[in-house]
Amino acid sequence: MVATRRHPSAYTEPSLSPSKATHRATTPTSESSPSHNSASSALTNSLSARKLTPKMRQPKPSSSISGWSHTPSPMTLIWLSISLPLVLWDTGYVLLRPHSMLGGTLHAPIWSPYAYYGTVDYQYGLPAWTSKDGFTGAQGWMNAVETSGYLVYLWMWWTMGERQESQLTRRLEGRAGGLAVIIGLSMSIMTLSKTVLYWLVEYHSGFAHIGHNDAMTLLISWIIPK
Asked: What spans are recorded as compositionally biased (Low complexity) (predicted)?
């Protein structure tokens, strides 16, 4: 025999379709936390303080080169004081030929020594003048440019330089000093190149202008002055 159990309550058959769950909408609260309020207040105060504080002006960089200077050496000044008058004297003789030559109206007394020098270096004597040798006149104009550059250098040094208490000289600073150095360097290169050119002209011409001299005359009257 099969015994059946009795249930305390009537059996209810489960529903086959699940019930729809209702979702309760939640609205965010408008209240903020105390820490958030304090951070916002600090940020606002900081921005207000920045507006009230005047801006610090950054100093503009100086356009002058105050840390650099140029002071010519005593040997440079001595060399210029000796060479410039001699080059001016030589340039005047060359560019004023034939009046500055022997027999000319301007020869004595300024250019009287060139009567002898014209026999040592024919470029300064009658052979070059009568043969229309243009090298002597060309180097005379180059001497004029060279001398002008040196005079500009000395003028800048004397008028724009600052006198030094511990030294009997002047110092050029900034752009003026840089420009003076460029001019002086350019003229010194020009002087060196002319000296080399004199030797090259004599070499390639078979020493046509100075080859007639003995060694001592050539050394004293031509090599040392050049």
From this structure: 25-43
130, amino acid identity: T
Sign of the dihedral through C-alpha 89, 94, 96, 102: positive
Here the tokens at position 59 are 């100093």
DSSP letter at 72? -
Alpha-carbon gap, residue 167 to 171, rounded angstroms: 10
Strand 69-70 and strand 162-163: the pairing is unpaired
The residue whose two tokens read 């440079």 is 76
d(CA 116, CA 125) in angstroms, rounded, equals 9
Asked whether 124 and 114 are in contact (CB, 8 A), the reply is yes
pTM score, whole prediction:
0.67
pLDDT in tens, 113-159: 999 999 999 999 999 999 999 999 999 999 999 999 999 999 999 99
DSSP 113: T
CA 88/CA 146 separation, integer angstroms: 10
Share in percent of the chain as helix, strand, coil (round to 5)? 55, 5, 40
Return the CA Rg of the chain. Answer: 49
